Sequence to fold (622 residues):
Amino acid sequence: MRLPLLFAAGTPSRRVLADFMRSPAAVAGLAVFLLIAVAALAAPLIAPQDPYALAQLDIMDGRLPPGSESMAGFTYLLGTDDQGRDMWSAILYGMRISLGVGLVSAVFACLVGTFLGLFAAYVGGRTESLVMRLVDLQLSFPTILVALMILAIMGKSIVNVILALVIVEWAYYARTVRGAALVERNKEYIEAGRGLRLSGARLMLRHLLPNCLPPIIVIGTMQIARAIALEATLSFLGLGVPITEPSLGLLIANGNQYMQAGLYWISVYPGVALLLIIVSINMVGDRLRDVLNPRLNK
Amino acid sequence: MFLWLTKRLSQAAMVVLAMTVIVFIGLHLLGNPVDVLLSPEATALERERLIADLGLDRPLWMQYFAFLQGIWHGNMGTSFVFNMPALDLIKQRLPATLELAMAALLIALVIGLPCGLVAGLKPKAWYSRLMMSGSVLGFSLPTFWVGLMLIMVFSVRLGWLPSSGRGETVTLLGVQWSIFTRDGLAHLVLPAINLALFKVSMVMRLTRAGVAEAAKMDYVRFARAKGLSGRRIVGVHILKNILIPVVTVVGMEFGSTIAFAVVTESIFAYPGMGKLIIDSINQLDRPVIVAYLIVIVIMFVVINLVVDVLYRLLDPRVRLEGKA
Fold:
């Protein structure tokens, strides 16, 4: 499957793309998300200040409201926090960490869940019921509780946060993939592949997997948003990323103590950034679900 | 039914047991339990006594059984921070969390049911669409962010409601309650709304789906043909049929409400179990962490079990499926 061919006229991918583009809300969501992703990636280039170079911070500039000028004559668009850190720069860097943790955990969860789901559906029997039992067990506990348990036992660190997110999320992929693969497993092309004595791995990865992709894409989009929200929640509770690499959740937590004093900007603006990310991903995911779901296409 | 119940019970016991193994391994492999259980100021003598007490010279499986025995007798160590038995500490904080979770579920039902009903009966109306879009937000907005906004608007800007603590409590049957005082209720409003938001969306969607499905059923058409009033059809025939699944799901959500109370309690400095576990993790108060994990897992397994049993009793179709 070469990429130029993927979107050639008349192919299903092209149809899906065209369908997707028909929803202004989804296109807007995608645009906002891409903009945020680019801004996060380019943070060191576009941020007016390196928020973690302590030498650049001036404590005299602490807690300035949005639009104030610094001692050096530079405008803090979104104000500063208690240490005189420019909030706009802190948010750009925070988005990098939030998006990074969310994406990495979603990718790993997707790999683990997809593999186990495919394997369960293809092999069947005891292996399948064992995997599905695990999935049921995992899903019967709320995400926050599982993440809390892992972090309580293993301690706080960015790797453990990612691990916790993967453990929380793999089950959603596994359940979805198995459902899709069960339907595909009984179709003629798989039977034909078996007749040709293709290896199990080849059948699973080259034939079964591509046909299970649509639901994986939909679940994946939604799970990225969920992972970002959960990471923010954990960081807000002080269980997530370390203070030296603050994600949006930690920025919000830092501002929380100043909320009572009316210094709203320290936590409101990182919160707005978080909301933009989550809502834009969900808008894309919502549309993808409508477009890729054959039952609704009739 | 009996066979099923035995199977289900043993499965629940297995989950609890597996959990104790995980906690035990986590406690013992990732850090010396002596360092973990002993306060940093302990002397060498105290240290040796603890090693003997814990039986750390014995093989691992014997230590595990000692750990299990401790749990069985309700002895899960003493909190370093509060200097009282960890389990008592949790028992003391439990009522606050239960109160909060119940209030949240009540709000979810009181708001979610009517909204879902309206949205299901008039799916094309603008207010129905507005409510459904609102429910998407309820699902996707992070709880802690909404909590902060509630504080900002209702406590800081408007000054209507308090933003932290539990307020005045009264002791009834040996337990402290805040729902019986004006001050306590005022302190409960914002956290309960915050915790309820996600559940409101869920109840709304469930009800809407149920109503939309029920409205097409023959019994509703028949009732309409009989000339019954719209109010009677909705209030008696439709509502009765959708109430069972909605109430079951809300019951099932009780456990997750208690879990998510961790977030809400931290924002509103509400002295429940959830705030206790976060504080304990941050202060490395391991006995409390262990006790919390064990208690919450047992609570969860019991809730899941009760819901499963109730579901089979309430809905005969599930029982038949099990037999086939």
